[in-house]
Amino acid sequence: MSDPGAATTPSTGLRRQSLRGDAADVIRAQIVSGELQPGTLYAIGQIAEQLQVSITPVREALLDLTKEGLIEMVRNRGFRVRVLTDADLDQILQIRLMLEVGAVREITAHVLVDDFTALRDLADRARKAVLADDLIGYLGIDRQLHLALLAHLDNPRLVDIVGQLRDQTRLYGLDRLAGTQVLVASIREHDELLDAVEAGRTEDAVEVMRRHLKHARGIWAGRTESKSDG
């Protein structure tokens, strides 16, 4: 039985063939959006019932999410969304700076993007979502934009690693950001980044990406400034 204080989640049936993958996608989205709260105990049976599947694919999905660092299993009781410390977030930022700044340098210097249409469309959709206070929609679009840019290096493992790191950093303070200017400032950096990459201004692109990630460090922790910025 789940903790009586546990939050409920939407009843979302799974329709694709891979129930394990579907379950992982839905649970991951619920974590990112804040529907599943860090530290709260959730019963596997409760989630399976809401997703309208048996316990087995949900249990398998939770094992995958455990490997991603998003949750921790509680023996014979269920699972909890991991609570990340400031040290955890700083370590994640350090890794992302090492990976994404270098990736943007390579992408810009070697002109690896020949068509910016899709990237510009994602940036525009992210802006519209923020202006409409659609935080959950913004999160998904923002993730697509960053990973779509990195995908131009043709390194799927890099994209997967960064995607997992991004998901982990989104466990804090999201509900406090809707309707603020903090996200508006962040999406402006998307345009600055794409402008620099498209113009071939490598050092500008590198600087914008570095600033954007440090800015994001504060946002995902529910603060307007990053501790890492000093």
Word description of this protein:
The protein is mainly α. Helix content is 62%, strand content 4%. The chain is built from 9 helices and 3 strands, in the order H-E-H-H-E-E-H-H-H-H-H-H. The chain has helices at 19-33, 44-51, 55-67, 86-109, 117-131, 135-150, 156-169, 182-199, 202-220; strands spanning 41-42, 71-74, 78-81. A 3-stranded antiparallel β-sheet has the order 1-3-2.
* Mean pLDDT across every amino acid position: 83
Shape: elongated
* Percent in strands: under 5%
Order of neighbouring strands in the sheet with most strands: 1-3-2
Structural category? mainly alpha
Q: How many β-strand stretches?
A: 3
Largest sheet: 3 strands, antiparallel
Number of helices: 9
Cα end-to-end separation: 45 Å
Low-confidence stretches: 1-11, 223-230
Radius of gyration: 18 Å
The amount of helix comes to: 55-70%
Notable traits:
elongated; 9 helices; disordered C terminus; mainly alpha; 3 strands; disordered N terminus; 62% helix; three-stranded antiparallel sheet; single chain; 230 residues
Quick synopsis:
The chain is mainly α.
What is the strand and helix layout of this fold?
Elements: H1 19-33, E1 41-42, H2 44-51, H3 55-67, E2 71-74, E3 78-81, H4 86-109, H5 117-131, H6 135-150, H7 156-169, H8 182-199, H9 202-220
Antiparallel strand pairs: 1-3, 2-3
